[in-house]
Amino acid sequence: MATTDAAAPESAPDVLSTDDLRVTYGKVLALREIDLTVREGEVVSVIGPNGAGKTTLANTVSGFLDYEGSAEYRGREVADRSVSDLVSEGLIHCTEKRDLFGYMTVDDNLRLGAYRHGEDADERLEYVYDLFPALAERTEQNARTMSGGEQQMLAIGRALMGAPDLLVLDEPTLGLAPVILEDISDAIEEINDEGVTVLLFEQNVTFAMNHADRIYLLENGEVVREGSPGELRGDDYIRESYLGG
């Protein structure tokens, strides 16, 4: 796990890459000239302020939005497959909104995440409950009655039920208490240690730097900085604008 600057080797194959990626909403250019690479085994973080385009980029590489330029997952254009196909091929997106079924139980929400891996559902369920013991204590609780932190664990757990090769996490720490941040932090470490590549979109810059091999800073729909956590910590602009000087 990338709590140091020891990134995955450059020889590792690209899981995801974009080249001159552009996304428009009507006449508004939301993303422009995005060049990004995620290599197998890495945790790559995309940081930036609210409104920078992080969720738009997360939705685009996950197949939810049309784009110009190139976005390739496993060497093929994202646009050439349906979202369902991408999920089957291991690209799983845990959205900022969590998108849980509020009137369904924890157990049922999780099992829905394994709809394409039914034969392994019980084994994956055990893995998720080991990762998030708080969920194991609430298997019959309806999702809507859970705290925000518990719902975030459930959303990540459901994504893991789909057996991801690339896990796209959009703002997993948003609005969470510090004690829950530790649980999410530990989970990301364990997920990556077990071989899952992670693309993390995060407004909490310190959290992102503590977990990433490489970081891209997105502002106004453009990548304005990129590098290792160590490199960006030494950047005056990053320190003054995002790390409190």
Form type = globular
**Major beta sheet, specifics?**
6 strands, mixed
Compute the gyration radius: what is it? 17 Å
Q: Spans with pLDDT under 50 lasting ≥5 residues?
A: 1-6
What string, H for helix and E for strand, traces the elements in order? EEEHEEHEHHHHEHEHEEHH
Overall mean pLDDT stands at 91
| Residue fraction in strands | 25-35%
Ends distance: 27 Å
Bin the helical content.
Answer: 25-40%
Strand order of the largest sheet: 6-7-8-3-9-10
- Give the strand tally: 10
Structural class: alpha/beta
Individual helix count: 10
Please outline the helices and strands:
Blueprint: E1 14-25, E2 28-39, E3 43-47, H1 54-61, E4 68-73, E5 76-77, H2 83-88, E6 91-94, H3 106-113, H4 121-131, H5 133-136, H6 148-161, E7 166-170, H7 178-193, E8 197-202, H8 205-211, E9 214-219, E10 222-227, H9 229-233, H10 236-242
Parallel strand pairs: 3-8, 3-9, 6-7, 7-8
Antiparallel strand pairs: 1-2, 1-4, 4-5, 9-10
Helix pairs in contact: 3-6, 4-6, 6-7
